[in-house]
Design goal:
The two termini are about 25 Å apart. By secondary structure, this protein is an alpha/beta fold. It is built from eleven helices and twelve strands. Helix 2 packs across helix 3 and helix 4 crosses helix 8. The chain folds into two domains: about 170 residues, Aspartate Aminotransferase, domain 1, CATH 3.90.1150.60; about 220 residues, 3-Layer(aba) Sandwich (Aspartate Aminotransferase, domain 2), CATH 3.40.640.10. The strands form two sheets. It has a seven-stranded mixed beta sheet with strand order 1-7-6-5-4-2-3, with helices on both faces. A five-stranded antiparallel beta sheet has the order 8-9-12-11-10, with helices on one face.
Amino acid sequence: MDTQKIYHEMGISSAVLAFCCSAEEELKPRFAAIDAIAEYNQAKVVAAMHKNRVSAECFAASTGYGYNDIGREALEKVYADTFRTEAALVRPQITCGTHALALALAANLRPGDELYSPVGRPYDTLEEVIGIRPCKGSLAEFGITYRETELLPDGTFDYENIRKSINEKTKLVTIQRSKGYATRPTFSVQQIGELIRFVKELKPGVICMVDNCYGEFTEIIEPSDVGADMIVGSLIKNPGGGLAPTGGYICGTQECVDQCAYRLTAPGLGAELGATLGLMQSFFQGFFLAPTVTASAVKGAIFAAGVYEKLGYRCVPSSAETRHDIIQAIELRSKEAMVAFCKGVQSAAPVDSYVTPEPYPMPGYDSEVIMAAGAFVQGSSIELSADGPIREPYAIYYQGGLTWAHAKLGILMSLQKMCDAGLITLPEA
């Protein structure tokens, strides 16, 4: 097979290909470990499907009120069993990860309560949800206060100030697993468990919610295995497996999930309502594929770090570190480099490959953002994409890839565009 010939036809030079292939060769032992995690998680998902007797009838569409939707009920039991929680809410009516998080917060907080983040400032889009940046309908408008504690300089938890910050008003503690648009390390499930235990010792009744976006199936355990009362995420990220066209999930205690269901629909109606509109097959099949698809994305992230580290760029995490989400941050040091990188990823996309990404103001963000994404599902983060705010340290966030081969192509093309723009000179072999 002359794969090299196809790469050359796509504009990838022999020098770029050789440089990237040498990095790939060094990473193969890491890839074997990732495959082992995928195998474990695949077995976990299939076991949950067997337990809940998933059948072809589960794929039938419901409309209107969505009463007696056996597929929806089975899917939520599969999620609950996979993530080892009492209950789950998995719905196409939840539009994205931010919506799922906003729903979980608004459902479980009341006026006079305090929301607390012991891991610093949350992802940009939550600032308006909370009211850090004023916005209509924010939690702040409903009399819910917010407090945060910054991480220590080394990216670890500031337990001394966490102890001082939790008070009689603290109702819910939110822990963002992934780094977001920051260059701090992503937290491992073990680290999250240690933090939850510390918080629960201080205030046993507090609700601990984990923003699980980008982290699902990257380890063999989830935050719900280590004490989280709720884990929250998006179906157009890891658990949708690239097939779910929309949706979000909340898994957790029966009490917390019930509150979310009443907020999503209406008090007294809750989880009984919500038509699935023919989406059940893609939700089930996407979840079935999710462990393997996530593994492909993790390989792509490690590969990206392996390539760009060799060129002197700071990568968070490094290619040698263990992985706890699918995101690879690369500090490219200039706006021009971010644009060139994104042009490369866009040109590797199966959809809209001819489009040229440009920085632009985006709702929910305080800086211009550049995004490269040519996806079958618009905005899908489990599909090959790269994005980042145009601000210091000019970090690009690379993630996704439904297959390892496509994730690899994205990095090849990114490096080629950087070289073409005169921003990188490859070392001589």
